[in-house]
Amino acid sequence: MTPKQQILETLRNASAPISGEQLSTQLSISRTMVWKHIQSLLDEGYDIEAIRKKGYVLNKLQEPLSENTLTPYLETETYARQLMILESCSSTQKVAKEWLVTNSFDGMLIVSEEQTEGKGRLNRSWNSTKGKGLWMSWVIKPAILPHEAPPITLVAALAIAHAIEQITTLQVDIKWPNDLLIDGKKVGGILTELQSTPEQIEAIILGIGLNVNHQQEDFEESIQKIATSLAIHHETPIYRSQLLAEIALQLEVAIRQFEKEGFAPFRERWIRHSPMIGQHVTAQTVRETIQGVAVGINEYGALLVETSQGVIPLFSGDVTLS
Ligand code: BT5
Question: Which of 52, 228, 308, 320 is most deeply packed, by most CB within 10 A?
């Protein structure tokens, strides 16, 4: 470890301010060198406060994502064991696709502090404010057949909801197929892209956007009314590295189970997380508008809508309460 990394590590583990003198003695370097390293950390985006007569305090919550901050929390076998952390990119989905041209790893994580062209489904845009959220793509290679892939989005949504509940105790709802909601507002979204031949899956790129430490004004004007973040509903800000490691774990556990047992063991839990079940809905698909009551979900992850013409399974689309 370099002296700069040692300073960071000491501040990260400290429960009280650490003085320049303490750091200088501990690392056997001059006070001037300590000061220079602190300046350099500030330049890198670390939020370090110098409290008069007491010392330095690192604000972990504003800490940029890094392998150093993530690894101590990571409990997975393969997920996030290879990773790329970017300061900025167009879209982590795009970076993942480029990476896949010459690489292969089940559980590769690409995460960026900012996306300039973040994407939702149907090429909609995804607002990805710098440093506030988790904008990430997971490259996974589950041992399933291409036609078995659709419920992956629902399994991922459950895993993320579970991870959030573990770290924050917030209650997260899932809106079919890919929205995570808190109090009816969107806190996250999932974009699942499949690379496969008719016979086998080459990779699934699971794009996840999660609003973590935003205040309401951090969102673009156009989504102010529909978007929310975890921090808006939580008393204290959330340490993104810890949350990311928990998401990695819950995703890995869920996808492994899905590979072996399919969607059946997730179905009940998914329904419990989805307040829309039992409600009158309007579903907009690429081809038509369907009205009816959302009555459940089948083993392929299709939403079942009871209409005057009978129960219709919905494989894609946008659903709103009517
Ligand atoms: C989604 O699409 O919800 C999928 C979003 C996936 C984003 C991730 S971020 C990492 C990875 N890289 C990418 O480029 N994408 C993935 P959809 O259901 O189509 O919802 C899109 C709609 O959500 C937009 O039209 C807005 O109305 C709204 N929206 C955009 N940004 C938002 C945000 N930050 N929070 C809440 N809602 C947002």
Answer: 228
pLDDT, mean over the chain: 95
Q: What is the pLDDT of residues 167-217, one digit of tens each?
A: 998 999 999 999 999 999 999 999 999 999 999 999 999 999 999 999 999
**171 annotated ligand-binding residue:** no
- Residue 115, annotated as binding a ligand: yes
Measured in angstroms, how far is the CA atom of residue 126 from the centroid of ligand 1? 4
With a Cβ cut-off of 6 Å, ligand 1 is lined by 91-93, 115, 118-122, 124, 126-127, 135-137, 178-179, 186, 189-191, 207-209, 211, 223, 226-227
For residue 129, how far is its CA from the centre of ligand 1 (angstroms)? 12
Domains of the chain: 3-58 (1.10.10.10), 67-272 (3.30.930.10), 280-321 (2.30.30.100)
pLDDT for position 46: 85
Residues 286-298: tens digit of each pLDDT? 889 999 999 999 9
- Probe residue for ligand 1, chosen from 92, 126, 316 as the CB with the greatest number of ligand atoms within 8 Å: 126
The minimum-distance atom of ligand 1 relative to the CA of 119 is 14
SS (H, E, C) the chain: CCHHHHHHHHHHHCCCCECHHHHHHHHCCCHHHHHHHHHHHHHCCCCEEEECCCEEEECHHHCCCCHHHHHHHCCCCCCCCCEEEECCECCHHHHHHHHHHHCCCCCEEEEECCECCCECHHHCECCCCCCCEEEEEEEECCCCCHHHCCCHHHHHHHHHHHHHHHHHCCCCEEECCCEEEECCEEEEEEEEEEEECCCCEEEEEEEEEEECCCCHHHCCHHHCCCECCHHHHCCCCCCHHHHHHHHHHHHHHHHHHHHHHCCHHHHHHHHHCCCCCCCEEEEECCCCEEEEEEEEECCCCCEEEEECCEEEEECCCEEEEC
Give the predicted TM-score (pTM) of the model. Answer: 0.90
Residue 111 Cα, ligand 1 centroid: separation in angstroms? 15
